[in-house]
Structure formats: structure tokens, C-alpha cells
Amino acid sequence: MGGNVIEVEGLTKVFGDFTAVDHISFSVAKGEIFGFLGANGAGKTTAMKMLCGLSRPTSGHATVAGYDINTEAEEVKRNIGYMSQKFSLYEDLTVYENIELFAGIYGMKRKDISRKAVTILKKLGFYSERKTLVKSLPLGWKQKLAFSVAIFHGPKVVFLDEPTGGVDPVARRQFWFMIYEAAERGITVFVTTHYMDEAEYCNRISIMVDGRIEALDTPAALKRKFGTDSMDSVFYQLARGAKRSE
Amino acid sequence: MALGFLLAKEFKQFIRTPIFIGLTLVFPAAIMLVIPWIVSMDIKNISVMVVDNDRSGASADFIGAIGASGYFIMEGLAADYDEALQHVELSETDAVIVIPDGFERDLLFEGGAPVQVSINAVNETRGTLGASYLGAVCAGFSADFFASHAFVAGNPSMQAAGPVPNIEVSVQNRYNPMMDYKWFMIPGLFVIILVMLCGFLPALNIVGEKEKGTIEQINITPVTKPVFILSKMIPYWIMGVGVLSVAMVLAYVIYGLAPQGSIWVIAAFSVIFVFSVSSFGLVVSNYSNTTQQAMFVMFFFILVFLLMSGLLTPIESMPEWTQVITYVNPLRYYIEMMRGVYLKGAAFGDLLPQFWALLAFAAALGAWAVASYKKQS
Amino acid sequence: MTMKQFFAFVRKEFRHVLRDKRTMLILLGMPVAQIILFGFAISTEIRNIDTALLVPDMGENVRKLSEKFDASDYFSIVTVISDEADIDGLFQRGDADLVIAFSPDFDENMYTSEGSSIRLIADATNTNAASAMTMYASNIIGDYVSGIAASSGMYGVSGVQPNIRMLYNPQMRSAYTFVPGVMGLIIILICAMMTSVSIVREKETGTMELLLVSPTKPIVVIMAKMVPYFVVSMVNYLTILALSVWLLHIPISGSFWALTLLSVIYIVLSLALGQLISTIAKTQVSAMLMSGFMLLVPVLFFSELLFPVDSMPLVFRWFSDLIPARWYVIGVKKIMIEGLPMFYAAREFIILSVMAAVILGVSLMRYKNRM
Fold this sequence. Notes:
The complex is a heterotrimer of chains A (246), B (377) and C (371). Chain A is of the alpha/beta class. Chain A has helices at residues 44-51, 73-78, 95-105, 110-124, 139-152, 169-184, 196-201, 219-225, 231-239; strands at residues 4-15, 18-29, 33-38, 59-64, 67-68, 80-83, 157-161, 188-193, 204-209, 212-217. Chain A has a single domain (4-239), classed as P-loop containing nucleotide triphosphate hydrolases (Rossmann fold, 3-Layer(aba) Sandwich), CATH 3.40.50.300. In chain A, strands 6-7-8-3-9-10 form a six-stranded mixed beta sheet, sandwiched between helices. In chain A, strands 2-1-4-5 form a four-stranded antiparallel beta sheet. Chain B folds into two domains: 2-39 and 181-372, no CATH class; 46-158, abc type-2 transporter like domain (abc type-2 transporter like fold), CATH 3.40.1710. In chain B, helix 1 crosses helix 9 (225-255), helix 2 runs antiparallel to helix 7 (181-212) and helix 7 (181-212) runs antiparallel to helix 11. Strand 5 of chain B pairs parallel with strand 4 of chain C.
């Protein structure tokens, strides 16, 4: 595998006569935090859904954790975690029940689940809320919980689709601590975001415009290349030429 | 086991939805308490108005016979046909009988007399049955009349001679000794209850997860399609069996109706049947994008299935081409089984064709439910 | 509040309704399917009864009688058995619904004082069918006996002969009963269910709040929601009328405009009911269940679609008076089928108008209180 957890080659998705993702190619190394940037409608979420096995590519190849997403989608799923843009844990289950359900689906034993859940909930400061229905939690907590659930079963890669949308800067900072912690444990993090300050936290970022990857490098190298000292400006220079936007 | 965890989730969600609990308890009870009384299609109470132009002993006897028959409610006498017809138009009476002048004389000396009967036949069943009942009343009255007037002298037609065919007709009604129409409907109502609960609720389930977005979090996991579908189905299995048991107990307590045949035959068929209808609900759910859509599609099919099942109207009365269609309706087989076992004491061996048909439906619909669930778009 | 704003909302609602092609298809296809089902597929009449003959020994009269049975519309002979013990099996497997059992030596004993006998053994699980089929069978046997008597010229007595005339429905078609019922059912289904579910849907997704904070009176938002369903219902109403006139050949005997006026009142009433439900229900599922189980089931059973209200116990007859669909169906029958002038349906017009006013009032009051 050459140390690369994600390898993408010419991945394309066409809806009717609309090419959402247009021949993208890149690779992500193990333990890397890979930022996936782009304006709304640039094709970020579609690309991510293909890598997660939620959406079938029109053409192109990709491997995630060593498995082909075209032919081994279910094997891919065994090795990844995912947190969608819209909060999608069960609102009518409690905090603990959600953890237990998803860990159970991944084949963890009840005893292991309960031991690990207690540790994590205590660390998050959620332990006293373990029997609370998820619908009554504030959004920032829900997102932390969703992330914890996504990495609970120890996946090789975790995909985060705009994980910090709609929360305050403090909660966002806390959330990124969690991401770093996961990366330190060797989990590769693939994250899409709108926030340019968050882009700075990534090891490498790619910027998508109109379904194509227009730039891919470390934040520092990109800033150098575009002769500016802010990611905002890099992004603006690239996204300006976009034909589609929402 | 992933299935165990998924099942636990479904049950928790179910018991946290108060309307479902209410529905599973109240709906069967309401159906069992109310519907048997209102679907009794006996058309006993046809009201009649009589115009008596003869005013004789015979016409009075005839009017008496109509009133005493039990089929008709005598609304009284009218002066003439037009007056009586007005009462029909105002829906105050259903039928008008005009006894002609010379009724008694014709009966005595000609051996027969016509009466004019006009029935409001907007409801065609009512019209037909009213006519048949009246035919029976006339026949009964004539027999009695001739028996008591046979002595009348100089009545040429009364002097019967030669061999008369002597055939005695008797009627024997089996399986429903009290002739209670409710008994016929009750096994059918079980079917309505099961279809409404175990068909509708699964149809709203998966599409509900789609609308909320939670399905995505499931699709990202390596859970297999059959396991996920089973986790959606098993709760309705348990619910179906539970609701059916409650309904059967109610049928016994309220109407004194207990199955003549084996409960195990009912159980075996019911498990297969609930599997089929909930699979069908899940299929609809898988293809739908919104709850509203799933609901209407489901409602449409359930209505067609119910009407084409022989539950409310006899299949034999349908034209050939629609009779053929009923063979692809799983409800048909289940209803035949229910009525057979409950009322006629049919044994498993009598119901083999129905069993294989239902089993085939269960297999096909179950496979379809799994296949139509797409983890990947 | 201007009319322009109102129409802007109406346009938005139309777009919503029209975008969901599948639901639209069901909405417009439902009346067609129901008319075809009720018109051509199902019938409450008893016909083609599967009949078995129990014949110990075949003779001239047995043969002639069986032919008479088979020739009638009511019976079709499916099998002939000779053993009484086989009867239960026939019934239990559903192979036959009636067994006509001739006594042994039927022909020989027919003219003796002892006589022959025919037993009509019916599967009486369906008591109505059983009474009807034994009655039809007795009539056929009776006809046969008087036929023999008449042909031998010995017995000229015919008794009281009823001369029956079927008023309003001379061809005895069940369509006359169900067309008004289908109209009552479809309209309530589309108006009440669709409006309640679509209003609750906007509540669930939060777009309702968006609309309500806009500088528009809430009542306008709600009214605009009802317009598309009003139009769909009118389309359905006209579809049903067209189908019944040209497909089922049921003419509109009375005034088309009186019928339409009655239907408009009923549609408004149904829309108001849907609106009322939407103020009670919190989720789409509960709105659907409420309208499904509280409106649909009663309408199905109390609108004379299949079950005559007159033969129900008194309590249920009273209860049925509370159901708007019942009055609508009676009114439609009077005007459309019986061709009576509007005056005769005055009671139905008044009751429906009052019901509509009350429901509309209550739902608007609840709506205001909630805001």
C-alpha cells in the first residue's frame, strides 16, 4: 500500500448531464489530516460519499484502507468511520444507546463496548448524560458524540463532512483537539470544511472547484505558491473562477 | 450480533413513539368492537308502503303476511301510488306495493293475482334482496291462502287431479349455526388489522429514516442488507402475532367465536402472512422519497388488495379477468385460510394450495425488500 | 396583504404538489382505479355459486334439474359426488359453497305419497350468501315443479304474482350505489389527508416558521396551502363524473350545478378537517394515522359504499349522522341518481354547510391560539 490509506485515480460522478466530480486523483497517507475544501456545490460531499461506499462512481478507481471502492465497498465500510454534514444519530435513542448500537453493528462485544464507552464518555464529560435522549443535547455536544461514534470501533480512516458547521469557536477548537488526538492514534482523517482557519490545522489540503481539484499541498506551500499569507486569499483566488455555486 | 443491536434499537424507538403504542392497543379493539356490527349486510329492514285498492279479507291477510315476515317494516297505507312514491323520493320508505282491485276475487277464481311492487333500487343489493324476500312472502302467502280456501265451492282451479310431483325441499346451513353474519366478518377483520398495522407502519419506517438522515449512518456501516431488513421486520412480526392474539381473545369474549380448527395452523399462516405484508411495506418504503409518498402508495395498494381479496364481496361474483387477478393477492389466501380454519374447522391438509401460495409470496416479497434496499446510490 | 402575495404562495404550493410525480399519479389515478374496481371488478351480488351435486342415482328429473341449475346465472356445477362424507371436505377446501343433495331413488319416489326430497346444504359462513343461494335454489326447484304441473295441465294455480319494478336503477347496477360513495371517499382522502400531512411536514422541517415570520398573515399561508388540493379535488370530482357518465353510463339525472355546489361545500369541509388535524398532530406520521384511522375508516364503513347504514344497530346509525361523508353521499344520490330537484336535498345542504362552518371555525380558532 506504500503507506497510503486512500488512493484515488480519475474518480468521476455524473448525474444526468451534470458532472459533479470530474476525474479527481490524489492520495492520503496514513495518519494524515487531509482537508478537502471547496465552495458549496463544488463536489466535496459527492466525492466523499463515493469514497465511503455510499455512492457508486461513474468511472475511475479508488482504494480506501486497501480495498477497492468499486468492488469491495462493504470491506471499505468495515474500516472507516463517517460523520455526515447533517446530524444523523438517532435522536430518540440515548447517548449510550447510540454508541452501543453502532459499536454493535461493527461487531464489538457488549462487554468491550461498555468498558470503552465509559472511558470515552468520562473523557468527554458526558458520563452523567449517558441516559439522556440525544434530541435534548445542544448541537456542539451532538457533534462531539457523532465524532466519538464514528471512531469508536477503531477505523483506519474517518470521513468528516463539515463536522463543525453551526457551532461557536470554542466548541470548534475543542472538536479539533479531538481530531488531533485521533490522528495521533494513527487514524487517518479526511475532513471537508468551509472554515479557512480550520484548513490551517490540516497537514495537507486540496481545493475543489467545479468538480475538479485545482490545488493540493500543505497550507504553507499553497500560501507560498499563491503569494499570500492567508488561506482565505488562496481560496478566493481559486474559487473566483467557479461557474457553479449555490 | 449486529441483528441483536439493531433489534434493540427498533424496539426502543417503537416504545418511545406513543402513537404506535396507542395504535396497537386501540386500533384492534376498536375494529373488533365496532365493525362487526356495522358490516352486517343483512338487509332485513326494508320499509314498505301499501296501496290497497281491493280492501278485502285477502288483501288484509296479505298485508299482514308482509308485516309478519320479518323482512319488511310496514310504513302504513297510502291512498294512491303517487302519494306513496313521494314517500320513496323523500327516502321515507323503500318500496311500494300496490294491491289491485279484484285481488281476492282473482285469487279465488282465477288461481292467481298480480301485485305491483316498486322498489327503490339505487342500492342494487337492497333491490334484489327485497325482490327475493317479497317473492318468498308471496309464495308463502299463496300456499297458506289455498290451503285455507281449498273448500271454496265452484272453484275450478282448485280441483287438482292426477299425480303432483311431491318434492320436499329442506335447507341445512352449516358452520354458522346461529346464522350470525358477524361470525363471517370477524376472521376477515383480523386480516384488516394485520394489514393496516403490519403493512402501513413498516412502509413509514425506512422512508422516515431517509427523511431524518439516520439511514446514512447505517449505510456507512458494514451491516448486511438482509440483517438490516430483518431488524425492521421482526418487530412487526412480534407486533402482528400480539395484536392477532388480542383480537382473537376479543372475538371469543365478545362474540363467543373460537376457532374450529387448529390454532397452530392459524399461527403458521399468520407468521408467513405478516412477513409478506411487512416486506411489501418495506418495499414501498425503499422506493419512496417522502413519508407522504409512501403513505399514499401504500394506501392505494392496500385498498386494491382489500377490495380484491374476497373479504367484503365474494370472489365468485367477479368477472373472469378480475378473478385471475385475485390469484396474485396474498390477502386472498390468508382470508380463505382464516375463514376455513375459524368457521369450518379446515385442517392444514385442506389448505395446502393456500400455504404454498403464501409461502411463495413471502419469499418473493422478502427478497424484493432486501434487493430494493440500496446501501449505495 | 395583497392578492399578489397570496398568489405567490399559491404558486409555491402548486410547485410542491406537482413536483412529487409519484404522489400526483396516485392522487389522479386513485379515482380511476376505484371506479374500475367497483364498476367492473367487485359486486356484492351473489353469482356463479360453486355448487356440488350429491346424487345417489342419476335419473331423468335429477338430470333436468341439474341442467336448470347450471343454466342459471346464480349457480355453476363444479362437481358431482355420491358420498355424503365428502361434503365437509368440499366446504373446507373451499371447492364448493352449496351442495344440492337428492334423495335416493329420486325419480321413482317423486310421485309417491312419501315423496322425494332435496336438501340444500349451504356453507353458511357467509350467512347472507347462504340465505340468498338457498332462496335462489328453492325458487329454481319451485319453478321446475310448477313447470311439470303446468305442462301436464293439471294444476293452474299461480298464487300471488309480484310484478316488480326497480325504481331509479332499472338495470340493477351496483354502480348507482358506489359512485357517490367513491366520491365521498376520494375527496376526504385527498383534502384532509394531504393538507394535514403537508402542513405538518412544513412544521417538521421548520419551513413553516420561515413562512410565518415573513410579513404574511398566517391565515394566508394556510389558505394558500389548501388551494392546490382544492383544485386536485375538483379535478377528481370531474374525473369521477366523467367516468360514471361515459364509462359506466350513469347519467347525471339532476342538476349538474346543484351537484357541484354540494361537492364544493364538502371539499371545503374536508380541507377544514385536514387543517384541524394539522393543528393537533405533531409529526407527519401521526397526522397520517389520525386522518387515516379517524376519517378514512369511518367514511369507508359509514358512507353506504358497501354497507347499508339502515341495517346497523341504532347507536351506529346515530354515530353515522355525525359523519359528513354520509350526508354528502345521500345528497349526491338524491341529485345525481334519483334526479330530484335541489329542494329535496335541502337537509343535506344545510347539514353540510353547518358542519363546514363549525369545523372551519374551530380549526381557525385553534390555529390563532397556537400562534
